[in-house]
Amino acid sequence: GLHTQTAKNYLAGNIHDQLVQAYESVREQTNRLYLCLEPEDCVVQTMQCVSPIKWHAAHTSWFFEQFLLLPYLKNYIAYNEQYLFLFNSYYNAIGPQHCQASRGYLSRPTVNEVTAYRGHVDNYIKKLIKTASKNNIAEILSLLIVGINHEQQHQELILTDIKHIFSSNPLLPAFPDIKGTDTKTLESQQDTQWIRITDGVYKIGHSHPSALRQDAITKTSDQTNKLNNQSIRAMLNRGFCFDNEKPRHKVYLHDASIASRLVTNGEYLAFVEADGYENPEYWLSLGWQWVQAEKYEKPLYWFKENDRWYQYTLMGKRELDINEPVCHVNYFEADAFARWAGYRLPREEEWELVCDNMPIEGNFLENRTYHPSKNMANHMYGNLWEWTSSPYAPYPGYQPADGALGEYNGKFMCNQMVLRGGSCATPRDHIRKTYRNFWALETRWQFTGIRLAKDH
Ligand code: AVJ
Ligand code: FE
């Protein structure tokens, strides 16, 4: 947790209002992502790991209610006892949950009812921020920041889930609130540079023991009046990290290089056309089983019509652009492609080292194309989550967060791989160089892509 002294400084001046604004801006961002949809769009569940959009809108509210209002707001009673069951995702320490695969069976609560629930939680969270006392402000503040970061993760899930839902419909609808297409032409040819890693001992992971970084807090209270909501939120988030990013620790790296850009559709198409999906020599054993079980032969959302390749995007159906980064490949496909091309995937430590001192720039959710950009493929951040060859495992000395929030990340440290860098569906201020995303190896509906690495 935070030091009480720091928390007091934090609340100097009109910082209360600014915290409220930081909270409101993340909630508005979510509202914008789902209120542009029709109610019918918000109830469909197309596979177990896709949730109905209204479920995300409700679950993110449940998170604030469960972890902040119920324990910290005096005399607060649950908005609806049954919501505590319906919208608990996976926290066994809190209680039983509605079956994940059956979330799409629920026509109630309606989208309007969920929106009312969101409004209720918003009112009481604002009340909680305004009436927080010296004794509990430190905890409230750090939980609030967890809640804000949690909500941002679900903003990305709203986009990946609606993409899967729309793609399952022959009408192939476009996402309504989109900022138009990326430029059609490639602004400059993307030559691959190789970024060198020299062998040696390096440190990776988040260095700060508390949930919030001391310097971020001090800076915030000093500059209170000059800051807008966005930058306050950015500072809150940049100082924050999840428990799985800690502790900072030493690793040994060998001589290697990492590519400066993502693998393109054109490069991946060459693998497809070279019968990459028919040749077991490129595939891990589990990957080959995966390919054979469903006769997979191309990335998710690719399709061929009259000998031309298309892909479903959140802008609707588009001709496959060979210069764009290839997306919606799973770990098996990323690994097989790398082997076929004569390279390998980067380790997460290598990825993080290369990002040292790199500005966090790239194609993020705020660009509102919700599609990887060929003109911003030269960044480590944004565009697509990059599969690493690192299993999602605890760092040496890992301590899960206290209480039920210990279930947030720790219990998933088995049979998943680490992904780095954020995507075109990730809010810009959500990502950092130490951020560890994780998904099971067969996952394809997230915005995932490939960066190559090589040994020396
Ligand atoms: C880190 C993206 C795998 O979606 O299960 C959302 C994020 N954790 N609510 C997930 C998350 C709790 C998590 N991933
Ligand atoms: Fe969640």
Name some characteristics of this structure.
456 residues; alpha+beta; four-stranded mixed β-sheet; 12 helices; globular; disordered N terminus; binds N,N,N-trimethyl-histidine; binds fe (iii) ion
Topology, please?
Layout: H1 4-10, H2 15-35, H3 53-72, H4 81-86, H5 111-131, H6 137-167, E1 194-197, E2 200-204, H7 214-222, H8 229-239, E3 249-253, E4 256-259, H9 265-273, H10 285-294, E5 302-305, E6 308-313, E7 316-319, H11 331-341, H12 348-354, E8 385-391, E9 416-420, E10 437-440, E11 448-449, E12 453-455
Parallel strand pairs: 8-11
Antiparallel strand pairs: 1-4, 2-3, 4-12, 5-6, 6-7, 8-9, 9-10
Bound molecules: N,N,N-trimethyl-histidine and fe (iii) ion (FE).
Fe (iii) ion binds next to helix 6.
